[in-house]
From TrEMBL:
Gene3D superfamilies from the UniProt entry: P-loop containing nucleotide triphosphate hydrolases
Protein name as it appears in the record: MFHA1 protein
Top-rank taxon, per record: Eukaryota
Amino acid sequence: MRVPNSVVLPVGTHVDCCQEQEVAEKTQDIMARVTAMLAERRSNLTHFIDNLEGSEEPKFYVDQWEKLKEMENCTLTILNLVAVNCTDHHDIKKLEATILKYVKNEELFPEVVRVLPPVYRQVEAAIVDIAQREQTADHGMMDLQYLLSKLSRREHLASLSRELLQDILRYLHCIGLVVWYEEIKHLESTIFLQPTFLITMFKLLVRHHLVQQLESIS
């Protein structure tokens, strides 16, 4: 509530571990808890403001009062929870479409206007083309320098520098088109052009019953 015009999209995962009725009940319970939490925080905020305004010497608490009033004016929009089956690629794509739909909603984000340089779109389109049309392995792993060399062969990207490509990759990583663990030394030169492959691998390795499975093996 401290960030003006915040928008939160709750996401429930592991739907495949629940019955349909359970999913509906859990969704309703989560949204009810969120609503109650927001109401409680709003009530507490109003209570604090009233206490300051009703104090014997309110002038000593002007700074606190102003901060609380700023928080009171902050809006928080909670969207309907999206339940996702992490083992279903269709569900993941549906979540992606839902997020994009909300992001493009000017009523939710009236102040967000972002214009990317044309080269960002050109590199994005080229990477998608490389991942889909060229003989790229299923895991989609590609060396950063090799990716740069492939992109530079395209006429409109011949002058693409490594530094600019890195900036663009950071953006593409943020929007989920690629995965680049720049901060991990052993992976800083590796770009994952197929993020869904990583998701699939993580799902196979990390599950809610992983401990039980390991115990059964031992």
